[in-house]
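Subject: mismatched residue count in predicted assembly?

I count 392 residues in my input, but I want to confirm that the predicted structure covers every chain. Input:
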Amino acid sequence: MLSHPDPARETTAGPGTEPVAGADPGDVGTAGGGAPSGTARGPFLAACRRDQAEDRVPVWFMRQAGRSLPEYRRVREGIPMLDSCMQPDLVAEITLQPVRRYGVDAAIFYSDIMVPLKAVGVDLDIVPGRGPVMGHAFAGAADLPGLRPLVPEDVGYVTEAVQILVAELGETPLIGFAGAPFTLASYLVEGGPSKDYARTKALMVGEPDLWHELCTRLADISAGFLAAQVAAGASAVQLFDSWAGSLSAADYARFAQPYAARVLQRLGETGVPRIHFGVGTSELLGLMGAAGADVVGVDWRVPLAEASRRIGPAYAVQGNLDPALLRAPWPVLAERVREVVRSGALAPGHVFNLGHGVPPDSDPEVLGRIVDLVHTEGPELRRRAREGSPAR
Ligand code: CP3
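Triage response: the counts match. Full output below for your records.
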């Protein structure tokens, strides 16, 4: 079991960080008996734990499995997205594809943030090219009972797939993941993808009691989904609050952070590192760390050294190459990759990643070159960047 209690944490949240209100860790239950440690080890877990003795810069990519890979398109042919998530052998194969191809330092479980909602009986689909679409949008209190807590038996196919994967992956860690309540609520309330989250925000500020009920239930579903993955052997988790960046810091602190905290606190009992990620969260980084993360995922808008300053020294960072730059000529892109490594070297721990997911039309060759560059040049770039900067 990876355990790294950090007494400094409570006092090191960034400026403007308010105490987490609304979350009640006392009644969220346990994570299901703790995590088997498996054999996972290496630079990814070291970076999450802020172990600076490790020279190798770990790298993986959000959405590394998926449409950018021809081998993915081949095995997914004719199989709807949600069905594919319920077939353990297929899930294991798709999860392993980018690990085999790129030699990344972590695998991310192939699933979707909507799978746990489907698993508790919510009527939804994932429409190619569009995203999650609900059978009917969340309309009020009458829809709450449909959002019951998730138990491991709801996702036996996840347990099975994780077990296959942990055996196959050996020392390479498997990252489990779930969507955070705000982001899940946005799909439920809007009925599908949205640009402005207007209905979601109207519900949030207009009916705060109902919002609280909704997000508390979503937190328990997400926590249950993550707990099932960790109990089966995942050695880290990432909570995606992808759309939290649409909120002001004050609204995030009041309406989103408490529920992300509820999820992260429950996972804290397992001892696995917790990564907390969102897009457009420059103003929220301190709050996202304080919600109970070990690692804060940063998009491309803030350099990692500055992000780390905002989050505080008790946290590692993950990111943050702009995915749009994958199309740039290689010499230019390579220099940007080096810049991310140099900036990340000034944080207490750095996991190289993109600032958001791999775009479906990305060239896998380019991603492979990035992995090689980070692995070959990373240690030296990191050493030099640290030498040139005062110790923190
Ligand atoms: O490799 C990995 O990162 C693991 C797999 C993964 C998927 N979804 C598979 C998927 C992960 C981590 C997710 C998380 C997810 N799903 C998020 C959070 C990450 C983020 O991008 O911010 C969100 C917001 C969703 C919801 C969702 N599901 C969207 C927006 C889409 C894209 C719709 C489209 O077709 O453009 C999906 C579908 C989806 N999830 C695909 C994959 C591989 C594509 C579907 C397909 O291949 O048919």
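Residues 208-232 form the longest helix (25 residues). Marking this ticket as 'not a bug'.
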